[in-house]
Write a structure and sequence with these properties.
single chain; about 200 residues; 5-stranded antiparallel beta sheet; two-stranded antiparallel ribbon; about 30% helix; about 20% strand; binds zinc ion
Length: about 200
């Protein structure tokens, strides 16, 4: 039987993730689109601070790339939320610019006069580009969209490792492909060992 897992993933998630990663132009999102897709890139960006203006009915949220100011080769993901400094001994080696990512972005949330959210506008705050690809971000951290998708399947009485087995099964290529599209290509069954 064809896979019936990951049914609730919104359409075009890969395209939205790539757009939100590259931020080539201003991205305008409806509240529904924002709710549907933004948590699939929360492994790429880290929230820094917010600014609200009651007069303008706006909230501005500032984010930076999780690799901001960090040499990408010094962290190794253990998949359980812990990272290891892999080159501690070389701490005094000057950081190379190429290992760091300086992308910062802002999300402007607009409300109407009744306080209803009407739109989100997402832009980079300067002209920098990511020094790495989206897959690298997926390798460093799982987004909450991936976590929720796996949890939802687990609630259907599958164990997460069984879901990954089903998703990796030849006859359900679709599952593995969906997992890849949402940023879960680096998820491995053993990451769940420490979870209840
Ligand atoms: Zn980056």
């Amino acid at each position: 039987m064809a896979t019936s897992i990951f049914k609730d993933i919104p359409p075009d998630v890969r395209q939205w993730r790539e757009k939100l990663f590259a931020l080539a132009n201003e991205i305008l999102m409806s509240p529904k689109e924002f709710d549907d897709y933004f948590h699939y890139v929360d492994n790429v960006y880290k929230f820094k601070r917010r600014n609200t203006s009651t007069r303008l009915n706006t909230g501005t949220f500032y984010y930076e790339c999780r690799l901001y100011g960090e040499p990408t080769h010094t962290r190794m993901d253990h998949g359980n939320g812990e990272y290891e400094q892999v080159n501690k001994k070389r701490r005094h080696t000057p950081r190379r610019d190429a290992d760091q990512c300086n992308v910062k972005m802002k999300v402007v949330r607009r409300r109407d006069e009744n306080g209803q959210v009407i739109s989100y506008s997402i832009t980079k705050t300067d002209v920098t580009h990511h020094t790495h690809d989206l897959d690298r971000s997926d390798q460093i951290k799982r987004n909450s969209g991936v976590r929720d998708a796996l949890r939802q399947e687990a609630e259907k009485l599958y164990s997460p490792s069984a879901i990954l087995r089903i998703a990796s099964n030849e006859r359900s290529l679709n599952g593995r492909e969906i997992l890849k599209q949402i940023g879960g290509s680096h998820v491995r069954p053993q990451i769940f060992n420490c979870q209840p």
